[in-house]
Each structure stands twice: as structure tokens, then as C-alpha cells.
């Protein structure tokens, strides 16, 4: 895929843009696609024990590829209800000073990895998660992205657009249709995932890109940060 990006840039053997930079652009597009669509989903269990003096969990320390919860349940089969912190305060103004002696019935999640349970978790509580995940980075040329094959071309579109960004001017403007096509493909897959999540009664749905004003996103894309390598550098 990195070769396809460089061929589109008329640099099949590298040059101003290197194969490493092309791979970084593909990984950035893959992460963005996963965030927009919530299409990479994992099922896993964890034994959670609150840290003394804290009521919250940082889920990235539990699952390193965590994006957001889709369903949270206990081994008893109880499915926890998503709530806001304000909801929990309304139920019980003193819930944050609880002892964790009752099984939780609700959870609240904010940001990417902040999570609390209500009532508070006791020690060594087994919790089952279905969660939207970040993709495994592409490292080798033979690595396959964790999205359906029909959307791999969207990553090539993003990679082409992203590397043209560094050139600026007319070359960057000519690459903007690639970015629009990437967004259109993300919108299409997000629609499929939304229907599937609704059927599964998951707690989160993908962004409604078809109703979003993307003009600001297109403007912000002109001020993108430098590319990161697969190892995060």
C-alpha cells in the first residue's frame, strides 16, 4: 500500500517522500478511519481493582488499544447501563465515598479512557467489555489493515493526500479530493457499523458523518501535525 501511495506521487522508489513516511501516512489514515467508524471492535475481560483513594479507571492502562466502551457487563450476565456523572450524583450524592460492597449496575465513561462504576467496584471484580479499538499499526509492507478489504483504497487516498500536505500550494489543493473520498468511504462504513451496533444494542454509535459539517475539518486539515512513525515517534 505504501508503494501505491508513492506511485500516485510519481515517486515509486522514494525521493521527497520515503516509504517510511508513506507507511506513517497510511497508519494515520487507519487510526482516523477507526475513530470515525468505530469499526474495529474487540471483546475482552478484565479483573479490576480500584487503587486506594481513587474511584476511576484509566482504561488505556487495561487495554492499550482502547477507544470507547460499546457494552459493559458482569459475569452474572448483568449488562451495565451507561450514565453521566450527573446522573450518578442525582441517584446518590455520596456514591463516590461508597465501599464497593454491591455489584455495579451503571458506568460512566468520558474522554477516551476515563471510566467509573456505580456502585463503586470492590476488589478483583471481573468485568466483560466489548469496546471500539485502535488498529494494530502497519509496520511491514505485507501487513494487512484491520478494516474490510473494500476500504483499503481509502487508506491509499488518505496517504496520498497526507503526503501532498507537506508540499503545500497547488499540489496540496489537487490532493483534497483524495481526502474527500476518504471521508466518503468512512461515512459509508460508519453507516454499516451504526446499523450493526443498533441491532446489538451497543451503547455507542459512530459519528453521523452524513449530518456533520465537515468544512471545519477540511480547514483544520491544512494545519496537521507532523507524521508519526508506527512506533509513535
Q: Which helices and strands appear, and what pairs or packs with what?
A:
Elements: H1 2-8, H2 19-37, E1 41-48, E2 56-58, E3 66-74, E4 81-83, H3 85-91, E5 106-110, E6 114-118, E7 125-133, H4 152-167, H5 169-200, H6 215-220
Parallel strand pairs: 4-5
Antiparallel strand pairs: 1-7, 2-6, 3-7, 5-6
Please summarize what this structure is.
With 233 residues, this protein is of the alpha+beta class. Helix content is 37%, strand content 18%. The chain has helices at 2-8, 19-37, 85-91, 152-167, 169-200, 215-220; strands spanning 41-48, 56-58, 66-74, 81-83, 106-110, 114-118, 125-133.
What brief labels describe this structure?
233 residues; alpha+beta; 2 domains; four-stranded mixed sheet; three-stranded antiparallel sheet; 6 helices; elongated
Commentary on this structure:
The protein has 233 residues and is α+β, with helices and mostly antiparallel strands. The protein has two domains: 2-38 and 136-223, no CATH class; 41-133, no CATH class. It contains six helices and seven strands. The strands form two sheets. Strands 2-6-5-4 form a four-stranded mixed β-sheet. The protein has a three-stranded antiparallel β-sheet with strand order 1-7-3, with no helix packed on it. The model has no long low-confidence stretch (mean pLDDT 88).
